[in-house]
Specification:
The protein is α/β, with parallel strands linked by helices and 503 residues long. It is built from 15 helices and 22 strands. The strands form six sheets. Strands 14-15-16-13-12-18-19 form a seven-stranded mixed sheet, sandwiched between helices. The longest helix is centred in the N-terminal third of the chain and has 24 residues.
């Protein structure tokens, strides 16, 4: 049945950090907001800054996935028949609409995720950058051709897979879906999205903007829910590919389940990113960059620094990091974590490290801003050993663990012995040191004096080891190749006087 009209047909009304409630999140199928076919309950959507409910999300099941697939299949033939340049025009119009609603989208992300306004705005701007890459695919999507023999031509084109799906996390409610959508849609596919049930509101508004941008109804669909919906997407025989971003534990499960049904799967997992600092590092640059890396977005990003490996006497840098972290203003420069459970988990890591002998240089356990919210301030743990839970497990909070070693090779060994391989960085003024570390660390995204080495478009995002399951990168040209498949055509139109083996 149809749901009541949603406020997401209009821009989000908030223009401050004050709590703003809005309508429930329902499914978007066939170009309309619809309630699930059966009542599977609702979950509260909390504003983490206030710890208060701002909306609810209706939970769905397999029947709703079936309905989304049916809508996608009905719309797909006309969409895939359009030239790639025509499909890319939707991205041009979406870009303009997102710029027009930049402020409203920023407040929406801030309220449902908890990011401070500046971080939420940066997310929306990065999401627009992803859309801009989709604009470029109208020209970049050209195939290859070559006369391989007299009168014989071989041509390759990238063809859509059909109906595809994505599952996205809470920490970037607008940006991560747009890691997938431009490439998949311009590639000629129909897409079903399962956003995090904690932050489904931004994608509700995105659905309307895509419709306003001219995307045909049924080509983009949203099915809200939890585990049952993810499993249904993995199992559905019509869905040809699944993209996933989340924890390593779930990424492994989704990859295995989707691959078992013959689907393409690319699943990005968690991280334990190591920053290596050496004595010749620039103190001011390193301190500012390291603090931004571990505390930005409240540490709730897979690219956040979580371990600082100090080689030799790096006390000048460490002291500067401690001083700068201690100056961060809660609520203005650092937002809350996503939930009460996350707050308890992060605090548990800090408590545990302290009991095991770590020195708490900056303590964020008592920090707060707005009453009722889930706040953890920047926390720095010194003298951590790599085998402590805080030294080897993903905390996903604004916590930096400092491990001290004597040699550069010891530091590299610590990075390479952890099961993840998402990101690694080095702080140095020596080109030789930088080159040595970059050639040795076992990570897919690396930085030199850059603590969050996110590759920007057209370069692809993706780690190694237990940080990624599947082939290629999620963004950039790799993303376009993931959501499409090559068709090879060999043709001969002219008879030749001299024959070859291909004749």
């Amino acid at each position: 049945m149809n749901a009541s009209p949603s406020s997401f047909t209009l821009p989000f009304a908030a223009n401050s950090d004050a709590l703003c409630t809005t309508s429930a999140a329902v499914n978007w199928i066939g170009g309309a907001f619809v309630a699930p076919q059966a009542d599977h309950g609702r979950l509260p959507i909390h504003n983490p800054r206030h710890g208060a409910v701002m909306a609810e999300v209706h939970l769905s099941d397999r029947a709703d996935v079936d309905a989304a697939v049916a809508a996608a299949q009905a719309a797909l033939p006309a969409w895939r028949a359009l030239p790639v340049r025509d499909r890319a025009q939707v991205m041009f119009r979406l870009r303009e609409l997102m710029h027009r609603e930049l402020d409203a989208l920023t407040w929406l992300v801030s309220h449902e995720n908890g990011k401070i306004y500046a971080e939420a705005r940066a997310e929306v701007e990065k999401a627009i950058e992803c859309v801009e890459f989709g604009c470029s695919l109208g020209n970049m999507g050209v195939g290859e051709q070559l006369d391989v023999s007299k009168g014989v031509n071989c041509q390759t084109t990238q063809e859509p897979l059909g109906v595809v799906a994505g599952v996205t996390p809470f920490n970037f409610p607008l940006m991560v879906p747009l890691w997938m959508l431009p490439q998949a849609l311009v590639g000629g596919n129909a897409f079903i999205l399962k956003p995090s049930e904690r932050v489904p509101l931004s994608t509700q508004r995105l659905a309307v903007l895509l419709q306003q941008a001219g995307l045909p109804d049924g080509i983009f669909n949203i099915v809200n829910g939890a585990q049952a919906v993810v499993e249904a997407l993995c199992d559905h025989p019509t869905i040809k590919a699944v993209g996933f971003v989340g924890s390593t534990k779930v990424a492994k499960l989704v990859y295995g389940r989707a691959a078992a049904t013959g689907k393409r799967a690319l699943c990005l997992g968690g991280a334990k990113n190591h920053l290596i600092v050496v004595p010749d590092a620039d103190v001011a640059l390193s301190a500012e960059n390291i603090v931004a890396s571990f505390s930005g977005c409240a540490g709730q990003r897979c690219m956040a620094a979580s371990v600082l490996v100090a080689v030799g006497d790096c006390d000048k840098v460490i002291d500067a990091v401690v001083a700068k972290a201690g100056q961060i203003r809660m609520g203005a420069e650092l937002g809350p974590v996503i939930s009460a459970a996350a707050h308890a988990r992060i605090k548990g890591y800090i408590d545990g490290a302290e009991k095991m002998g770590a020195v708490v240089r900056v303590d964020g356990r008592g920090a707060s801003a707005d009453p009722g919210g889930w706040w953890v301030g920047p926390t720095i743990l010194d003298r951590v050993s790599p085998d402590m839970p805080a030294g080897c497990e993903e905390i996903f909070g604004p916590v930096l663990s400092i491990v001290r070693v004597n040699t550069l090779d010891e530091a590299i060994a610590i990075e390479n012995n952890n099961p993840y391989g998402n990101a690694s960085s080095v702080y140095t003024t020596s080109g030789a040191v930088a080159r040595y570390v970059m050639s040795k660390v076992d990570a897919g995204m690396c930085g030199v004096n850059v603590g969050v080495p996110v590759p920007r478009e057209p370069f692809g995002f993706g780690g190694w080891n237990d940080s990624k399951f599947g082939h290629g990168n999620m963004t950039g040209w790799d993303g376009y190749l993931f959501w499409t498949r090559p068709r090879k055509v060999t043709s001969k139109w002219a008879l030749q006087a001299d024959w070859t083996w291909m004749s």
